[in-house]
Every structure is written in C-alpha cells, then in structure tokens.
C-alpha cells in the first residue's frame, strides 16, 4: 500500500495531508504543495484536479522543495498511486493519429526515441501490457506522461500538448 505526505511549506513545514490512494482533488486538503515525502510506493502527481496538467513521477524518498521533483510551481491538485506490475511490458507506437502511419512495438525502455524510431512525434499508441511513462526529451527528461493499459488515439489522450516524445520507460517494476 502506498503512502505520500504533502506539505504546504518547504522542508516539510506547514499544514500537511497524508494520502494512501488516488485523489482527484487535493485542493480541499492543501492550498499549495512545497514539499513532500513518499513513504511507500510510486506516485504520479498532477498540477490540476482530475489528473490533468503537468505530471510528475515520484518514487520513495523525501522532496524538501518542489524543484526537486522538477515541479514548475507549488500547485499539486491530484495524485495517482502507480501499482506494482510484475508481468510483461508491451507498447505499440504510431507516427499518426488513430493508429496510422509507421508502427513499432517496444517491450523495454527507450532512452532516445529518435535513435530507434527516426522521428520524435508519436501521435497515438496502444499500451498492450504494463504501465509506461513518456518523457518529452531524450534520456528521461522534460515533461512526463503516465500511460496505463489502453488505447490512446491522439497525444492529447495522454495529456500532452504536443506529440513530441523523446524517451519512455516501463513503470512499476523497479
């Protein structure tokens, strides 16, 4: 079971809120989030309610200020616990929306999409097995997007504002 503690002030000060499951709206518990502790599990944090806006992947550890989780500001309004996953991993990427254009299947992490796919724009994908995270830049940097099993017909379906994917990795196995 996961557990995360949000704090309004830096260095674990101010009001706090303890969470052990998905929460679509944290605003009633905290007005801002400047630090946090992940005591158990892996979590995805979202800048806006209902799992929207910038996303931040966090593992167990202490984060005394929001810049340490590459936060753009002190706004965390929803969170999801990423379940452990011990099965196989498989994702199918497409260069066009609605599963069109060139397609490639992956079963492992990819630190540089361009090197393997020969372009950075992924317009649709199908997560066949496991949980994945897309990064806007190569080497697991930049904006992050959490993808669970299912079909994503266009990049906005996973919360992105552009189709750029620089790297991706499997989630929940480490």
Describe the structure.
It is a single chain. The chain is an all-beta fold. It has one helix and 14 strands; from the N terminus they run βββββββββαβββββ. The strands form four sheets. A four-stranded antiparallel sheet has the order 2-1-3-6, with no helix packed on it. About 30% of the residues are buried. GO terms for molecular function: structural constituent of eye lens. Keywords: Eye lens protein, Repeat. Monomer. Pfam families: Crystall.
Topology, element by element:
Layout: E1 3-9, E2 13-19, E3 35-40, E4 42-48, E5 52-58, E6 61-63, E7 78-82, E8 90-96, E9 100-106, H1 113-117, E10 124-129, E11 131-137, E12 141-147, E13 150-152, E14 167-171
Antiparallel strand pairs: 1-2, 1-3, 3-6, 4-5, 4-7, 8-9, 8-10, 10-13, 11-12, 11-14
Summary of the model, kept short:
The protein has one helix at residues 113-117; strands at 3-9, 13-19, 35-40, 42-48, 52-58, 61-63, 78-82, 90-96, 100-106, 124-129, 131-137, 141-147, 150-152, 167-171. The chain has 174 residues and is mainly beta. A 4-stranded antiparallel beta sheet has the order 2-1-3-6, with no helix packed on it. A 4-stranded antiparallel beta sheet has the order 9-8-10-13, with no helix packed on it.
